[in-house]
Each structure stands twice: as structure tokens, then as C-alpha cells.
Amino acid sequence: MKIAIASDHGGVTIREEIKSLLEEIGLEFEDFGCECGSSVDYPDYAVPVAEKVASGEFDRGILICGTGIGMSISANKVKGIRCALVHDVFSAKATRQHNDSNILAMGERVIGPGLAREIAKTWLETEFEGGRHANRIGKIAAYEDKH
Ligand code: RB5
User: Fold this and answer.
1) Which mutation among 7, 12, 41, 65 tests ligand 1's pocket best, with the greatest number of atoms within 8 A of CB?
2) Atom of ligand 1 at shortest distance to CA of 8?
3) Where are the domains of the chain?
4) Which residues lie below 8 Å from residue 11, measured CB to CB, with a gap of 6+?
5) For residue range 91-117, what is the model confidence (pLDDT) as tens digits?
6) Which of 26, 14, 19 is nearest to 107 (CA)?
7) What superfamily does domain 2-146 belong to in CATH?
8) Contacts of 92 (CB under 8 A, 6+ apart)
9) Which residue, of 23, 70, 119, 124, has the greatest Cβ tally within 10 A?
10) For the whole model, what pTM was predicted?
């Protein structure tokens, strides 16, 4: 599994924590910034990562900003992206099992790096359950195809 990761200036600490997790569990990843000493705009990082996941160049993405909200709103504009904003381990597991989320968003002003690491680990290790959930995701894809 190949992971694309990025943050804005509000998510640098958690981004570094998740990179160390990815190294530890041996997953290939690429860091798409930011190189931010100053304030940057989250869509400039969310959209490129989302496009790389939607195109299949990367299997999954992880995006961090202050709240995770700007990153998740931006990523979900890209066709084929199911970005889940998650701040607890239960939802990390559920969104993989039920939504087959392909991008995880988190907010560094909401949770600390320790919890973010547990959330990301759970999200990376949990499989999609398929079945009735695949039917529901199919309805989202059908809507995207019509618009
Ligand atoms: C940046 O100040 C902040 O707005 C951003 O990191 C994020 O929280 C937006 O949703």
C-alpha cells in the first residue's frame, strides 16, 4: 500500500508523527508538504493528494490541518474520493469497514499526536467489509458519474 501524506502549517507535528508510524510499519509513502514556515492554504495540499489517490497513483491519503475540516472538504471535491474526518479510534475502524474511505483527515488543534497515531494505525489496518456497504458507496459513485 502506497500512501500520499500532506498537511498545512496547522498539521506539521501530526504529519511527522504519522510519517514515523508509516516507517515503523513499513508502508511506502510520499510527503507532499507543506514546507511551511508560514501560513499556507489547505486546498493547495488537499487537492493534489486527492487527485493522486483518485488516479490510482497512490492507494490512500492522509491529510492534516488545524481542524481537519478544510482538508476533508477540499479532498471530497475530487471525484472518487471518500475522505473521512476522524478524531477517534472507533470511527477510524468504522469508516474503513463501512465507507471504504480512501483518505483520512485529522485536526492537530483537536487531537494530539499519540491519538492521531492510533487512529492512523487502525485506519490503515482495517479492511472494507463490502456487501451492503458496497451498494451504498455505489450510490455515491453513481451520483458523481451524473454530475
Ligand atoms: C489554518 O489556520 C486553519 O484554518 C486550517 O489549518 C484548518 O483548520 C482549516 O480547516
Assistant:
1) 65
2) 6
3) 2-146
4) 63, 64, 65, 66, 71, 106, 107, 108
5) 999 999 999 999 999 999 999 999 999
6) 14
7) Sugar-phosphate isomerase, RpiB/LacA/LacB (3.40.1400.10)
8) 84, 86, 104, 118, 119, 120, 122, 123, 126
9) 119
10) 0.98
What confidence tens digit (pLDDT) does each residue in 45-77 have?
A: 999 999 999 999 999 999 999 999 999 999 999
Q: Which of 34, 65, 133, 147 is catalytic?
A: 65
Verify whether ligand 1 is closer than 6 Å to residue 70 (CB atom): yes
Atom of ligand 1 nearest to the CA of 69: 10
Residue 11 CA, closest ligand 1 atom number = 6
Give the DSSP per-residue string, 72-102. Answer: HHHHTTSTT--EEE--SHHHHHHHHHHH--S
CB atoms within 10 A of CB 27: 14
Q: Is 98 among the residues known to form the active site?
A: yes
The answer, yes or no, to whether any atom of ligand 1 lies below 6 A from the CB of 68, is no
